[in-house]
Write a structure and sequence with these properties.
heterodimer; A: mainly beta; Immunoglobulin-like; five-stranded mixed beta sheet; 8 strands; 0% helix; B: mainly alpha; Cytochrome Bc1 Complex, Chain D, domain 2; two-stranded antiparallel sheet; 7 strands; 7% strand
Chain lengths: 106, 262
């Protein structure tokens, strides 16, 4: 039951620097912890995040076991054209989630 | 031996004088503060922004579960309660509430499970499970901003009193009662962390240390471990009574669910 929260301004002026905030639901199990009986809890993390703006990749990040649960990633870009942001998270055990948000640039 | 009553009276007087400062002082209404006000501006900003507050992920999950059909009767919460925004508004501000069938107070988590058993014929969800926290957070979210009014039901009075007694009771190897920190020393720090007033305004809440949502019972159990006492089991009547007392103590303060705490 994965869910994402995306915060992209609905409107911006051409050339404005806009902030994009993303929050993805994920346990980010490090693979270093053990159960009460001593067995290792297998690693289960998001390994890659990317954002495309009208098809062109504008941001990418690799994630590692030290990242806390529910990764909150924010970055900024320049509003060039109206259109769509596509977000993608890829991780262990076939984890793959997408989300999108649109923006109107005047 | 004719002076004995006089000595006894004098000793009683001395005992009274000594004992008075040992009684904990309750926090005056005007000085009550939510745990929110003890946090750094960064953590406050995280709670304020619904797209940055990780507790909202639980609320989203809870919204999906609210509409999901389950149990032998194949009914969803929404089939009886319809739109939670209307039907659940202010509900969390009244919990723990008295359950006439059980004859004792139940927490919001227990109410969700009672509803599952009685009206959906589904198995109860385990305490602190993702689904139970999500559903509770979703229900409690509908009361955000509503002043807490727990304890208005007179049937709850004996249970509130028991919770109050437990709050004042010294326990554990460190021999501390809740009151010793949360009434008497809430303006101080313990190893760099603020000692707060123990006003449970935002449960279930997202605790950064836990990296997940957690219930008030989890918080209370962690506190008991901290004073090296044996924590009560989840759902134990003592924990419910303590939760009930804490909520009546916070009466009038607005619900913040899902809050963020460090």
């Amino acid at each position: 039951m994965a869910s994402a929260l995306i915060n992209v301004p609905a409107k911006a002026k051409r050339g404005d620097i806009i902030e994009i905030k993303t929050l993805m639901s994920h346990i980010m199990e490090t693979g270093y912890r053990r159960t009460a009986t001593g067995e290792i809890i297998p690693r289960d993390i998001i390994t890659s995040f990317s954002c495309r703006y009208n098809g062109a990749e504008i941001f990418r990040a690799d994630l590692f076991p030290a990242t806390a649960a529910n990764p909150f990633i924010t970055f900024s870009t320049i509003a060039t054209d109206s259109g769509k942001f596509d977000f993608e998270w890829i991780g262990d055990n076939g984890f793959s989630e997408i989300a999108s948000a649109s923006i109107t640039v005047e | 031996m004719k002076s004995t009553p006089a000595i006894a009276a004098a000793m009683l007087l001395v005992a009274t004088v000594i004992a008075v400062p040992l009684f904990a002082t309750e926090i005056p209404q005007a000085q009550r503060r939510s745990g929110y006000s003890f946090m750094t501006p960064d953590t406050q900003a995280m709670q304020n922004d619904d797209t940055a507050n990780p507790g909202m992920l639980g609320v989203l999950d809870g919204e999906a579960l609210w509409k999901k059909k389950t149990g032998a009767l194949n009914k969803a919460c929404a089939d009886c309660h319809n739109d939670a925004q209307a039907s659940m508004h202010g509900v969390a501000a009244r919990y723990p509430a008295f359950d006439p069938t059980l004859g004792r107070p139940v927490t919001l988590e227990q109410r969700v499970n009672l509803c599952r058993v009685r009206h959906q014929q589904a198995t109860p969800l385990p305490y602190e499970s993702r689904d139970l926290l999500a559903l509770t957070a979703f229900v409690a979210r509908q009361s955000r901003g509503v002043p807490i009014e727990t304890g208005a039901d007179p049937q709850l009075a004996p249970f509130v009193a028991k919770g109050h007694d437990l709050f004042m009771q010294r326990q554990g190897q460190l021999n501390l009662g809740c009151t010793n920190c949360h009434d008497d020393n809430w303006d101080k720090h313990l190893a760099g962390s603020a000692i707060t007033q123990a006003q449970p305004t935002g449960y279930p809440l997202y605790r950064l240390e836990w990296q997940s949502l957690g219930s008030l019972e989890r918080r209370l159990r962690a506190c008991m471990t901290g004073i090296r006492a044996q924590p009560f089991d989840y759902g134990a009547p003592e924990l419910v009574e303590l939760e009930l007392y804490l909520m009546t103590r916070a009466r009038g303060m607005p619900v913040e669910t899902p809050a963020v705490r460090p």
